[in-house]
Design brief:
Helix content: under 10%
Strand content: 35-45%
Shape: globular
Largest sheet: 6 strands, mixed
Distance between the termini: 26 Å
Number of strands: 66
Amino acid sequence: MGRHHRTLPHRLRALVLLLPALLLAGCGATLIGALTAVATSGGGGGSSGGGGSPPTNQPPVLVLIESPPDPAVGTVALRYRLLDAESDPADLLVEYSLGGGPFLGASAAADSDGTAGLGTSPMGVEYRFVWNAFFDTGAVDEQVVLRLTPREAASGVSGTAVLTEPFTLRNSWIATVFNGLGDDAQERLAIPDGLAVLRDEAGTVLALLVSDTFNHRVLRLDALSGAVTVLAGTGEPGFNGDDQPASQARLSSPRGLAVDAAGNVYVADAGNQRIRRVDGETGFITTVAGGGGGARGDGGLATEARLVLPVAVALDDDGNLYVADAGESRIRVVNRTSQRIEVGRDERGDPVCVEPAFIETLVRLGDVLDDSGLPIVGGGTITGKLGGRPALADIVVQGRPGTIPFGADCDAVVSSSSLVAFVADPGTGSVVRRAADGTIEVFAGRKAGDTDVAAPQGLWLLPTQLLFADSEAHVVWGKVLDGTLTAGRVAGQVGEPGFEGDGGSPLAAKLNGPRKPVQFSYEGQEILAIADGFNRALRAANRGSQPVVLGGVAIAASTIETLLAGGGSGEQVAVPVGVAVHPDSGEVLWTDAQNGRLLRLEPASGAVAEVAAGLQGPRGLAVSPDRAAVALALAEAHRVVRVELATGAVSVLAGTGQPTSGVSDLGDGGQATEATLNGPTDVAFDAQGRLYIADAGNHRVRRVLLDGTIETFVNSKQADGKPAAGTAANELDGPSGVSVDAGAQKLLIADTNNHRVLAVALAPSQVPVGTGDVTLIAGATEGNTPVSGYNGDNRPAVGAKLHGPLRAIPSSTGQKVLVSDADNHRVRVIAGDVYGGGGIIDTAAGTGQATFNGDARPAVNAALNLPSGIAVDPATGAVFIADTGNLRLRRFGEP
């Protein structure tokens, strides 16, 4: 660690950090003295001043331009020069000492670009080093000294070491202030997600397998006895390697499951960004896909490929493996057979072939399915929808891809494909089908005429129909494969979440956020098992005519029963999405999207009270100017309401309750209560009391004036609100978050589907605003097209990649902007010349892995899962995060 050779500049190519002004005391004299010494030695000639040669192998000289500030928070940057009379290549050893202890090697910040490579120059070119302090130390409030030693690369001759002034290394630790699973989250079952059937060689059902996502393990429920054992995972999140018994290996938020004919179990180890395989004979675990870094890895070994958020796995008739990567809205295929397979055709129409153990992209859903414009509901890959973007949840396949003998000419392939794939996409409320000829269509959902389908989650393919769980409608649907009929209910009541109905008809039962159905024959009866997510239960419906005993539970014909449960009956699992802090009391106000509630948290005691219930899709909120209420965006009701904090009384501020059907019925210029909204997701007040609305489904920001009239404040140029190809400054696509920086007189917009953050003047030259009143403060483009992803920190925020940002807010001092970078599973912070477009971006919380790895650790080392709402306590600077995917409300110190 800490040694950076000339072969490493590409790792540092954009270590860009906005630093304070150069230290004047001492630095100027040191630099002048060093340059004078170099010039004198370079002049050659000793006392005569004549033409003698300069001495050789002089050690390089280090000039420290700037020491780290005191205190230093986050990653630590320093600037320096390397001087050498002969301009010989040099490197730099950086070491640190905590509290006067021994010096240890310091590692550079990962995933960074740099402005220059390391080397030397007689004129002293400026270089930067960014120390990943908390990665190395995990320290908080520790005194630190850095030791910098220049070295000549070829000879190894070291120059004089330079010590920085002591400084305090400070960190922002994280804590959970509310756990949506309750206090018994470590019981038998937290949130069941994946579900699979384990059979013996004769096809007899041996057990049901269920991924206990929030307990980071896979459970095995014996079909005869009901005994529950752990198939994989220790219950502690993490990754501790392969080639060991699966029950001793750590998993991280496991999701989908699949079982092959030999009894091998495939696990979508989402938080570890891998697909793991549990051997059916030995019980040992290995990685079969993912775990690689850098490029996506198409055309290479599956174990060297990068998966972002693998949430589901499936197997075709030949045993090839399919992966739903929700992080990139891609379906990947891994060839596990002994022959080359053709999975499709590229943009030029040429066959795409996959060799054994290699990986390819079968389809990227975002390329073939446009934004549905449906209301934004739920909490991403946990509850379903987190915007109009594709949000893959599950995949099932049938048949086999086109095959050719291994080693044959791929260009000569004539496809014999019979592969059909179905993909659940809760992000657009659809089930998408890829036909055997490679064409893609919407099979189920509102676009296919299924008006009650909201968020398809888990799939199960039968010979004549597709079953799918709907986590928003709280139903398991069935739809015939020829598509001639609309989807029909198989279990649950539409829009009626609850935990009721055991012993009765599956159609009369209440489910709550079901995740996955599977149907199989058991003792001659057809059994439908359901991972009933937010009821923390595994339930089974007997669809046959005779009673059975499954998992030790008797199930009469045509009834449903609970086989396995974690929490108590009727327990409400809370899904935090929006959060605000009351400026007077310090109480934390937040929305529980799953149960339609506004909740209040007293920070000192941790007590939680319900302010209001029965809300339809509560999302973002803002404390009213009179401090007596909150304005609250109701995405599913297409309204913004006022909720009185003392009584919970609700009144309408904007919206008729019907979604906008066209630009003609927006209602701009009239009373806000008579205007239409489309899935509003956030609200904010300015100092004058005007209300701003993130009208996400209309791709606009609306403003309600003091007289109650409404106007479009920021809008794309298209009549229906959807942006054209390419993105101008005032063209929005699914904006999810709004907030006001009163000091800067700016409105901050999280332009979610454009993957950027905008700042808009509150007093623009025109309304709707023109491009001159909008500043891009974070996000990247290629040409005129927005680009999503993650390309590191300590770089200019303009040009940095975000992925689905949901909210941007000013810090308590107004000198920084915090961004919930949801699909990167981070909270980012922009500092410096934020509104001039020259801010520098860093990570304030999150590791980038969609999992939970515990509290009582530095926020930058804590894993988040789809962070959505964020708020700052103006009195303390504490940052509160709605860690939606982890079902938690969390807090850390302001960066």
